[in-house]
TrEMBL record:
Database matches in Pfam families: WS_DGAT_C, WS_DGAT_cat
Biased composition (Low complexity): 445-455
PANTHER family xref list: O-ACYLTRANSFERASE (WSD1-LIKE) FAMILY PROTEIN (PTHR31650), WAX ESTER SYNTHASE_DIACYLGLYCEROL ACYLTRANSFERASE 4-RELATED (PTHR31650:SF1)
Alphabetical UniProt keywords: Acyltransferase, Glycerol metabolism, Lipid biosynthesis, Lipid metabolism, Transferase
Name the UniProt record assigns to this protein: diacylglycerol O-acyltransferase
Length: 455
């Protein structure tokens, strides 16, 4: 490989916290699957990945301790063939079989003596092929991962050796926000300290089957995508964001699921940890983790879908105006300075306050091609830290929205049912808001730019 070795770089405390966050019951790995048309050309695929992925130094570096601090250090034994594996299927793979393969791979820890990512290529999937792309969360968050995917792929099937210069990590420059005054920064840090303290003493949410001890047995499921225009039209009618619709739909699904399992949904609300992007989108090429988690009381105790949507929007708007997202990002940085045992204790204390993780990621806006093959679907599952064992993800891609669920099966033994209820909750919201007229003064809050792309 002609790429020059990158110099060792100190790891941020926040990324180090993610690096140490793995447990036997929860691996901190972002799992994604990319579905493609046509047969796979492994030589062309491996050549493309080998040429483009090392443009991000993190994908050829491993984590080592240097002078008592964790550093990103070049792996001089790096071999692309140790990171890309072809699994040849004996027959065409059904959706159920593909979910089983995803679940099996999601249980496998990534090797720590090398860069912490891996691709498994599956042939004979839905008349084409699939790539299971697994990246440890210490490398990047969801927004960074989408930047990587855009760089690996092309906007047409002509596939040249050279990737597009648009957003190329070697050409991109860091975008800076306007600098606050020292007094304003001081006030912000005081508010952040207040929110960290407030979150640490927050009462746990309603007790439910989602808060039982975890076994570590996971399952990943997904459904056919939703048409983004349908969801966007609904959000415009109600003057809310796509993220608000997502939160309201999940709330309805969780309510119905608990009701079907004999638990009263009309008491205290369930609380979710919702990811909130804090990075300038232009800086996604830097990778790393630049997001906070916000604690949101979901309106799971509200029966009316329109009222659930209004409450979801009001609560998300209030949090966006607060310092809570920055407070939780600061909390992760502090956790990265603690001994491992104390980090796990602090994380368990924080995650015990909620029941589920919700995240959404703004994926590529147009169809992408990898090594000449057209990508038809992009699905992503993010890990759940600490005591959280239920995670729902929402990712946009080329005019469609893909819903995905990642659960501990002791908490949700029938994840397909919860996934189906989430799909039905979108339909319920659409019917309930069909007669609503869009607010005359509303701006396009529902565009994909309103997505709070998270982990």
């Amino acid at each position: 490989m002609s790429k020059a070795s990158a110099a060792p770089a100190a790891m941020t405390r926040r990324d180090y916290a993610w690096h140490r966050m793995d447990t036997e019951r929860n691996l901190m790995v972002i799992n994604s699957i990319l579905l493609f048309e046509g047969a796979v050309d492994m030589e062309r695929l491996v050549s493309t990945i080998a040429l483009r992925l090392p443009n991000y130094p993190r994908f050829t570096q491993k984590v080592e301790q240097r002078h008592g601090r964790p550093h990103w250090v070049e792996d001089h034994a790096f071999d692309i063939n140790r990171h890309i594996k072809l699994e040849q299927m004996e027959q065409d793979v059904s959706r159920a079989d593909l979910q089983s393969h995803m679940t099996r791979l999601a249980h496998l820890p990534l090797e720590r003596d090398r860069p912490m990512w891996h691709m498994t290529v599956l042939d004979r999937v839905n008349g084409g092929h699939a790539i299971v792309f697994r990246v440890h969360h210490c490398i990047t968050d969801g927004l960074g991962l989408v930047h990587v995917l855009n760089h690996l792929t092309d906007d047409n099937g002509l596939h040249g050796r050279t990737p597009s210069p648009v957003g190329h990590p070697h050409r991109a420059t860091v975008a800076h926000n306007a600098v606050c005054s020292a007094v304003a920064r001081g006030i912000s840090w005081l508010k952040i300290a207040f929110h960290v303290s407030r979150l640490s003493v927050l009462w746990p949410d309603a007790h439910s089957r989602f808060k039982a001890p975890m076994t570590g047995e996971k399952q990943l499921v997904w459904l056919p995508p939703l048409d983004m225009e349908r969801v966007r039209a609904m959000s415009k009618r109600m003057g809310v964001t796509l993220n608000d619709v997502w939160v309201a739909a999940v709330s309805g699904a969780l309510r119905k699921y608990l009701d079907e399992h004999g638990q009263r949904p009309d008491g205290r609300a369930l609380r979710a940890a919702v990811t909130f992007n804090l990075r300038e989108k232009a800086n996604a090429f830097q990778l790393g983790n630049e997001f906070g988690l916000v604690a949101v009381d979901l309106p799971t105790n509200v029966d009316d879908p329109r009222l659930r949507l209004k409450q979801s929007s009001a609560r998300m708007t209030a949090i966006k105006r607060s310092h809570q997202p920055r407070a939780t990002m600061a909390f992760l940085s502090i956790a990265g300075c603690l001994p491992t045992a104390l980090q796990h204790f602090a994380l368990n204390l924080f995650t015990s306050k909620g029941s589920v993780v919700l995240t959404n990621i703004e994926g590529p806006v147009s169809r992408r091609y990898l090594a000449g093959s057209r990508m038809t679907d992009l699905i992503c599952w993010v890990p759940q830290a600490g005591k959280l064992g239920v995670g729902l993800a929402f990712i946009s891609y080329a005019g469609q929205i893909q819903l995905a669920l990642f659960v501990d099966t002791d908490l949700v033994p029938d994840p397909d049912r919860l996934m189906a209820l989430t799909y039905e909750a979108f339909e319920e919201l659409q019917l309930a808001t069909a007669g609503e007229e869009a607010p005359q003064s509303s701006t396009d809050l529902a565009g994909t730019g309103a997505l709070a792309a998270g982990s």
